[in-house]
């Protein structure tokens, strides 16, 4: 039991004492969830011993430069390219953004920029502005709907979801749709195979029924 710090192994008959701390994290207001009947009240009282509230990224903009540098180094390393320089102007734009998606949104924007930047410096892209995601200023007839949950896009502008999907598909094709192993797509993307499969389901990515012509023939025997 969590409260008593005791457990029994599956199939066992001996009660073991534990000396651990249980840390639970959520992006929801659990007190409000309890009132709405969507979270067990008794569990809330057991967990609510020492609450730590992390303010949203827009309230701690001083953390953004360090996070950006970390994500640039991380994703440049994944792609095997030199670490991109972040100009003061780019950093000001990133700090001016409201970041409704918090740190995950920041990392997604930086990863997208690392993928699309062609020079030695990180380039966020003309379609992205500090005030928020791009809003196409075009007639409705030329706009096309994006993936589920994404805003409509126009012209050649892609959403972050589309960039992620294209990057995953390109990596899968590069590895001949091999997910696991040292040379598999999951390793190249820096993901666990289970996480990669989850993102493939999210984007509706399925392995082609026929083997790619570019794949070398398998040895017999």
Can you walk through the features of this model?
With 221 residues, this protein is mainly alpha-helical. The protein has three domains: 6-47, no CATH class; 57-135, Helicase, Ruva Protein, domain 3, CATH 1.10.8.60; 162-203. Helices cover 38% and strands 4% of the residues. The chain has eight helices and four strands; from the N terminus they run ββαααααββααα. The chain has helices at 30-35, 41-47, 64-79, 88-96, 102-116, 160-174, 185-189, 193-203, and strands at 6-7, 16-17, 143-144, 153-154. The strands form two sheets. A two-stranded antiparallel ribbon has the order 1-2. It starts with 5 loop residues before the first strand and ends in an 18-residue tail after the last helix. 10% of the residues are buried. Residues 129-155 have low confidence and may be disordered.
Topology:
Elements: E1 6-7, E2 16-17, H1 30-35, H2 41-47, H3 64-79, H4 88-96, H5 102-116, E3 143-144, E4 153-154, H6 160-174, H7 185-189, H8 193-203
Antiparallel strand pairs: 1-2, 3-4
The outline comes out as extended
State the strand order across the main sheet: 1-2
Task: Indicate the CATH class of the largest domain.
Answer: Mainly Alpha
Number of helices: 8
Order of helices and strands: EEHHHHHEEHHH
Name the average pLDDT: 79
CATH fold descriptor of the largest domain? Helicase, Ruva Protein, domain 3
Distance between the termini: 55 Å
* Rg (C-alpha, Å): 23 Å
Report low-confidence residues grouped into runs of 5 or more. Answer: 129-155
Specify the CATH architecture of the largest domain: Orthogonal Bundle
**Helix content class:** 25-40%
Number of domains: 3
Major β-sheet profile? 2 strands, antiparallel
Amount of beta strand: under 5%
Structural class: mainly alpha
Count every beta strand, where a strand is a DSSP E run of 2 or more residues. 4
């Amino acid at each position: 039991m969590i409260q008593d710090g005791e457990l029994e192994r599956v199939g066992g008959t001996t009660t073991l004492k534990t000396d651990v701390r249980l840390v639970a994290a959520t992006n929801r207001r659990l007190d409000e969830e309890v009132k709405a009947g969507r979270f067990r009240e008794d569990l809330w009282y057991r967990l609510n011993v020492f609450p730590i509230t992390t303010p949203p990224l827009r309230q701690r903009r001083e953390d953004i430069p360090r996070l950006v540098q970390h994500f640039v180094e991380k994703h440049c390393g994944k792609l095997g390219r030199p670490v991109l320089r972040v100009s003061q102007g780019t950093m000001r734009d990133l700090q001016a953004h409201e970041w409704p998606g918090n740190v995950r949104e920041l990392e997604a924007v930086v990863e997208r920029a690392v993928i699309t930047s062609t020079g030695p410096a990180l380039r966020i892209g003309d379609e992205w502005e500090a005030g928020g995601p791009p809003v196409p200023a075009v007639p409705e007839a030329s706009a096309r709907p994006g993936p589920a949950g994404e805003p409509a896009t126009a012209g050649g502008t892609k959403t972050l979801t589309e960039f992620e999907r294209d990057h995953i598909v390109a990596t899968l094709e590069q590895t001949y749709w091999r997910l696991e192993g040292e040379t598999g797509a999951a390793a190249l993307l820096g993901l666990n195979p289970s996480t990669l499969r989850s993102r493939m389901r999210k984007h509706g990515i399925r392995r082609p029924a026929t083997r790619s012509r570019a794949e070398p023939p398998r040895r017999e025997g």
